[in-house]
């Protein structure tokens, strides 16, 4: 009881960006991600006298509090319980900065909820309930590469492991250009994106891009994986720009980072980028090029923080 759950953040290589059903967080496309070793969330839930949510030691009110307790009430209803709860969560990942904090947050919260009530669930069922908190959290139940199959209802929309312990030479360098919380959440951004004339073509391309990505992973083909991930991210951001009204998560430094990746590639250092709902950039690279890429980024950007991540594990519980 009351164990701390730890979930690692995942970054999508084939992105989830559009919902068929907002209430149940059913996506319009399947997605594929890499769970990271360097970023994670620890969450503990205990029955208490009142509902309280502490994030990084600070008592939360407003939107963050609402989101957590709206979610926990859904779980309480599902499992027939109704106590007040104290939620304590620590993010070892910047919050709401496009580094996928909600993926580890709601996977850890689903795990912590089950620990609090001593509920035993399969990974598949954990994935489904994590999805109800944040779609991307469905994938953070697993380590390595995970696929979230879109499904068509609560029972058919869950993630599964493609390979929990990959041996592929793949690093993800998180280039933290601006770690302040963004103004437009992923939830709101993806809703607005659905007004783009390119939204339907984006959905139509999903199956083809997902199978190509699975093939690249199975073949351990870094070039194919990087090219596809970069294309998929560019498509997502093109949809944002062409929405009505159009918007972008990019900042001037984001464009600068894209140019640097293109220059590095032209000079024979193979690397690719992927970008989520925020200004920060993630570089996909092989070990042999990691040092040089970090050196180049440090010389081009002032005050940049770079984290060299690789594959992380799935949901776990900490010994206490
Ligand atoms: P990102 O995933 O890029 O960090 P999102 O907009 O998808 O941004 O999600 C960020 C939101 O998720 C935060 O504004 C907050 O409401 C919620 N969140 C983040 N971390 C936690 C946490 N540890 N516990 C509960 N909710 C969290
Ligand atoms: C760009 O999972 O945060 O990171 O389901 O509304 O909580 P909600 O959205 P969220 O969106 C993630 C968007 C993304 C791509 C991805 O992780 O697949």
Descriptive overview:
The chain has two domains: 5-166, Ribosomal Protein S5, domain 2 (2-Layer Sandwich), CATH 3.30.230; 171-309, Alpha-Beta Plaits. It is 38% helix and 26% strand. The chain contains nine helices and 14 strands. β5 and β6 form a beta hairpin. The mean pLDDT is 97. It binds adenosine-5'-diphosphate and ligand DP6. Residues 178-305 form the Mvd1 C-terminal domain. InterPro entries: GHMP_kinase_C_sf (IPR036554), Mev_decarb (IPR005935), Mev_diP_decarb (IPR029765), MVD-like_N (IPR053859), Mvd1_C (IPR041431), Ribosomal_Su5_D2-typ_SF (IPR020568), Ribsml_uS5_D2-typ_fold_subgr (IPR014721). Keywords: ATP-binding, Lipid biosynthesis, Lipid metabolism, Lyase, Nucleotide-binding. Its EC number is 4.1.1.33.
Q: How much is the average pLDDT?
A: 97
Separation of the first and last Cα atoms: 11 Å
The percentage of residues in β strands lies in 25-35%
- The SSE order reads EEEEEEHEHHEEEHHHHHEEHEE
Q: How would you classify the quaternary structure?
A: single chain
In percent, how helical is the residue content?
25-40%
Number of strands: 14
Number of helices: 9
Total of domains: 2
Report the biggest beta sheet as strand number plus sense, adding barrel if it closes: 8 strands, mixed
Per the principal axes of the C-alpha atoms, what is the gross shape?
globular
> Which fold name fills CATH's third level, the topology of the largest domain?
Ribosomal Protein S5, domain 2
Low-confidence parts lasting 5 or more residues at pLDDT below 50? none
Regarding CATH, which class of the largest domain? Alpha Beta
State the secondary-structure class: alpha+beta
Q: Would you identify the CATH architecture of the largest domain?
A: 2-Layer Sandwich
Rg (C-alpha, Å): 19 Å
- Ligands, deduplicated: adenosine-5'-diphosphate, ligand DP6
Protein name: diphosphomevalonate decarboxylase
Enzyme class: lyase
GO molecular function: diphosphomevalonate decarboxylase activity
Pfam family, one: MVD-like_N
């Amino acid at each position: 009881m009351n164990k701390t759950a730890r979930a690692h953040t995942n970054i999508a290589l084939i992105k989830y960006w559009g919902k068929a059903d907002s209430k149940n967080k059913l996506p319009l496309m399947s997605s594929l991600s890499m769970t990271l070793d360097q970023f994670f969330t620890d969450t503990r839930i205990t029955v208490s006298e009142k509902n309280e949510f502490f994030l990084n030691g600070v008592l939360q009110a407003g939107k963050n509090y609402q989101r957590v307790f709206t979610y926990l009430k859904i779980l309480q209803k599902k499992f027939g319980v109704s106590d007040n709860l104290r939620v304590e969560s620590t993010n070892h990942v910047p919050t709401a900065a496009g580094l996928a904090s909600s993926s580890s947050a709601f996977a850890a919260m689903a795990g912590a909820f089950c620990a609090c009530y001593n509920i035993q669930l399969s990974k598949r069922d954990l994935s489904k309930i994590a999805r109800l908190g944040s779609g991307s959290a469905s994938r953070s139940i697993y380590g390595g590469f995970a696929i979230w199959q879109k499904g068509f209802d609560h029972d058919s929309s869950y993630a599964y492991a493609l390979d929990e312990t990959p041996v592929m030479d793949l690093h993800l360098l998180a280039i933290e250009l601006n770690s302040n919380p963004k103004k437009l959440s992923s939830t709101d951004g993806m809703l607005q994106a659905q007004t783009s004339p390119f939204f339907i073509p984006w959905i139509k391309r999903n199956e083809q891009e997902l199978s190509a990505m699975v093939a690249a992973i199975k073949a351990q083909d870094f070039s194919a994986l990087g090219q596809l991930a970069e294309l998929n991210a560019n498509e997502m951001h093109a949809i944002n720009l062409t929405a009505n009204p159009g918007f972008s998560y990019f900042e001037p430094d984001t464009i600068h980072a894209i140019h640097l990746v293109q220059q590095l590639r032209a000079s024979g250092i193979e690397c690719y980028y992927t970008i989520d709902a925020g200004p920060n950039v993630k570089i996909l690279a092989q070990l042999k090029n990691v040092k040089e890429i970090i050196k180049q980024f440090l010389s081009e950007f002032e005050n940049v923080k770079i984290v060299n991540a690789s594959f992380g594990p799935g949901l776990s519980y900490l010994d206490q």
